[in-house]
Amino acid sequence: MSLLESIQGATNAALPLPWLATAGQPSAEMFTAAKASGVTAVIDLRDPMEPRSFDEAATLAELGIEYVNIPVNSGALSTELLERILAAVRAHADTPTILHCASANRVGGALIPYFIIDKGMDEQAAIDAAMAVGLRSAELMEWGLAYARAHG
């Protein structure tokens, strides 16, 4: 089973990079399938207080998958927050990883600077790639673009 196949059925499941699957909230069963496909880390952009049908941290611990939680909340978007996300993505580059939030909207915004700075995309290509993984918010798009412009 491929990395993308392991999370099929999750909202906006996508594979923007060969080693990075993105999605809205995967199920516990999807994480089990992801482990079988070689996933070693999950980066979760949801606040721990957001409702879920299972204990994600405990499920991933049982599976032996590293769990990184970096909550992204509207109205609290900062350079420091984006730097934490980018550091986590970079730390797991080239190893099978899942990056998710509830719908992949936050994921898309957070990946814009990675696409521009690390992958050399121009702004429009990065926006298109972010929208393909689930970006819908102008606020999140501007957050990612502002960081890329300042640090690119």
Range of strand content? 5-15%
CATH class: Alpha Beta
Q: Report the biggest beta sheet as strand number plus sense, adding barrel if it closes.
A: 5 strands, mixed
C-alpha termini separation: 36 Å
Task: Write a concise synopsis of the structure shown.
It is built from seven helices and five strands, in the order αββαβαβαβααα. The chain is an alpha/beta fold.
Write the layout of secondary structure elements.
Elements: H1 3-6, E1 14-17, E2 20-23, H2 28-36, E3 41-44, H3 56-63, E4 66-69, H4 79-91, E5 97-100, H5 105-118, H6 123-133, H7 138-151
Parallel strand pairs: 2-5, 3-4, 3-5
Antiparallel strand pairs: 1-2
Helix pairs in contact: 2-3, 4-5, 5-6, 5-7
Give your account of this protein's structure:
It contains 7 helices and 5 strands. It has helices at 3-6, 28-36, 56-63, 79-91, 105-118, 123-133, 138-151, and strands at residues 14-17, 20-23, 41-44, 66-69, 97-100. It has a 5-stranded mixed β-sheet with strand order 1-2-5-3-4, sandwiched between helices. Helix 4 (79-91) crosses helix 5 (105-118), helix 5 runs antiparallel to helix 6 and helix 5 packs parallel to helix 7 (138-151). The protein is globular and about 40 Å long.
